[in-house]
Amino acid sequence: MQKYISVLLTVIMLAGIITGCGNLPNNTNEKLSVVTTIFPEYDWVMNILGEKATDADVTMLLDNGVDLHSFQPTAYDIITISRCDLFIYVGGESDEWVDDALKEATNKDMIVIDLLDVLGDAVKEEEVKEGMEVGEHVEEAEYDEHVWLSLKNAVVIVGAIRDALISLDAENADVYTANSSSYIEKLNALDAEYRSAVDAATVKTVLFGDRFPFRYLTDDYGLDYFAAFVGCSAESEASFETIAFLANKVDELGLSTVLTLEDTDHKIAETIVASSKEKSSQILSMDSMQSTTMRDVKNGVTYLSVMKKNLSVLTDALK
What we know:
This protein is of the alpha/beta class. The protein has 12 helices and 8 strands.
């Protein structure tokens, strides 16, 4: 609640800021202006733009490693959104601030893409599985926001972004169509690699000593999973019961790997391994792309490169 009060106060301040002087974003129609919230959206846009990327201003709001679930837009962010031509966001509970931000839009022809809306019936409700640390879980079901971790979802979303760019810049429709087709081929090829890896695996279950944002991915390939917390959980401490349950699953299923997310301290995973009978499971990390920064982008990180690394880790975990 405090997060949304902060956003409302920011919006109230905008009326004075937007008419004042200073270094504010300025969309002058000389370049197509695109604002994305998270890294996968940004990377998809850049791939569709291709050689036309220099003719556009593309902004990634969460560019400093802040998690989607704790992001609070600044006044500058909201003004940037208000003046853009295309705004792309996830659309789950973490993005409830967006409605207020869009009320400040000065570009009335802006196209808005809500990923959950684009995916429609393919969006899943957050799932609480046996053994998870529930904590103060919200009574009402919430949608699982981590839709970008499905290559199949990515294909659908790339198509929606392509169509939006063509609507805004019909002159370059052929470029956007060709680039998106080429990129979708790469997504489908990697999807096939995932399918082959899972089909060849002897183990069909993954276990996370961490939050679990990979439900879309595991469902795509018919994998089962166990985890300490749901994907959007704010919990960081696991109870004895949760640790014991997961350690027992390691033993019961003969799992050689306990997985974690990027940038976590691995303490829960280490405790699970230490509590298992063999105490020999390795700890590996899969990247949910929730902390990818513009520095990472400049160093060559792409959506496809991360998903390829995740495939390598998944293949190891399913041995």
